[in-house]
Amino acid sequence: MSGAQLAEQAWEPARPGAGPLRVAVVGLGWAGRSIWIPRLDEHPRFTVAAAVDPDAGARASVAAARSTGGGRDDPSGPRLLADPGLLTARDVDLAVVAVPNHLHSRVAARLLTAGVPVFLEKPVCLNAVEADELAQAERAGGAVLLAGSAARCRADVRALYDLARACGTIRHVDLSWVRARGVPDAGGWFTDSRRAGGGALLDLGWHLLDTAAPLLGTASFDEVVGTVSADFVRAGTGAATWRRAGDLDPDPGPHPDPDPHPDTDSGADLASAVRRVDVEDTARGFLITQNGVSVSLRASWASHEAWDSTVIRVEGSAGTATLACTFGFSPNRRGGPVLTYTRDGDTVRVPVPPEAVGTEYRRQLDEIPGLLADPDSPGRAVAEARRAVDAVERFYGSAHSRTALPAGPGPRSRRT
């Protein structure tokens, strides 16, 4: 009998109590196994009670990792399931949903309706209809939906929020996340529009819009215009070589497909979908809120740059605050974050506390118990998702309403 089968038989639901929150990780691809499970294991407020994925190999890899000391010392181990429908509010206190994009709202709504609180990876939904379904499920099950980019929990981003108060009335925000080589899972579901819903805009752009939300408030966007391009994905260059399914390996050498397990759906249609590449690698746009604040946005999976870079600039009536850093886990970064404040031609550097890559996820976990108990949490995630997905849908509508310029010869493959 396999280790996975033994773990499935040995587990019995724990009774609700005052101990650590029992968490089910739904989706055992790269994010589930490399981001969420290790950090949940390390956190004293949580215990991994279940790991869910229809792929037996993904479940077996979780069981194997824990049997070799890769998890918290728990004789029963997490329950290993193929179907999230087997989870109930009696068994778990929270489900972290990290499945492919096209399943986000479907899986989350099913769990919420069953009364299971959910933390949902971005993008929370792919359209307004899915946002409505999540809102209805949250009400029907009486369970709260939590979401939000971990980027808000970065120390440098929080320092930027504080510094923005010195900028006076905010007039404009620049948002940019440009990778040198960072097309995720090229040829897999990330580049398949039917399962990803979009490319760099939905992947990186959602993080940027979510990070800007505390600066922009609850105002929606009156005007959205955007363009997209796919020079790198079409040329087959710019793939992220640092990410693979099992770890956060900083080695920039070649690796196999980072998420060979599709998390759902099977058959001939899926086999053909694995080879589908029809999303953008770059999105550039300009948005204006109801309050007249303008926002420029660029999200690029790949570029001609040498280093990955994230820049957020807040221009106000009394000054400009600029944060230059690198979001995400890519090791292709230069130095640490730099935060500056400029007024009347004088620029000063503002100290930012150093922190290890990925610390923001631990900080995000710190906040989840309080959010689960907060009576104001229900409806908040859906409201923020509505504003984001409305902007994304209109961005794509603007981009697709124009005839794309003919592609040039394409970026040349880089030597590594």
DSSP helical segment count: 12
How helix-rich are the residues, as a percent range?
Answer: 25-40%
Instruction: Kindly estimate the percentage of residues that lie in beta strands according to DSSP.
Output: 15-25%
Q: What's the shape?
A: globular
- Unreliable runs: 1-17, 244-274, 405-416
Characterise the protein shown here:
The longest helix is centred in the C-terminal third of the chain and has 21 residues, at 380-400. Helix 5 runs antiparallel to helix 12. Helix 5 (128-141) links the parallel strand 5 (118-120) and strand 6 (145-147). Helix content is 32%, strand content 20%. The chain has helices at residues 3-10, 30-42, 56-67, 104-113, 128-141, 155-164, 193-196, 200-216, 231-235, 268-273, 359-373, 380-400; strands spanning 21-26, 46-52, 79-81, 94-97, 118-120, 145-147, 170-178, 221-229, 282-289, 294-300, 309-316, 320-325, 338-343, 346-350. The strands form two sheets. Strands 8-9-10-7-11-12-13-14 form an eight-stranded mixed sheet. Strands 3-2-1-4-5-6 form a six-stranded parallel sheet, with helices on both faces. With 416 residues, it is of the alpha/beta class. It contains twelve helices and 14 strands.
